[in-house]
Structures are given as structure tokens and as C-alpha cells.
Prior knowledge:
Blueprint: H1 11-44, H2 46-67, H3 69-95
Helix pairs in contact: 2-3
Amino acid sequence: MAATDVVRLDRKQQRNFTRLQAHDNARAARDQLAGTLSALEEKLNVPKRAARATARAKRKMQRFADEQPGAAIALAVGVAAAVGVGVWLVVRANLDR
């Protein structure tokens, strides 16, 4: 059979062929839907994204502390002082009422 020959299918073979095509199309659509749902779940799952962001920030801070321990200590003291001043201001504002 040459490449230009056309294969003729009888009606039953054509019907079976279209059923197989429909089955393949349905499988492809299911796979695409599953991928889309998975991407949406990943994007809309806020606790999961927050946990990943927290873990990423912890790794980044640990790396910073390992590379520059003096700066990390100074940063920790600065943050503690800022929080302390903030709390003091809130308490003082509430006591003046």
C-alpha cells in the first residue's frame, strides 16, 4: 500500500473509530481539567501558600544569620526595640484616656 492510498472503512469500523476518538478526547479533556483544578487549588490554598512563604522566610533569615551574625543580632535588637516602643506607646495612649 502506497502512502497516497486511502484506507476505506466500513460503517462499523468508522463508528468504532469515532468512539475511540471521542474516548481519547474525553481523556484529554479530563487531564486538562485536572491540571486546571490543581493549579487553582494551588493558587487559592492560602494556608499552604502561607506555610511555604514562612518556610522560605525562615531559610532566608537563617542564611542571613549564618553569613552576617553581627548584622543579624543588630537587626534582632532593632526589631525588639521597635516592638517595645510600639507596645509602650499603645499602653501609654490607653492609660491617658
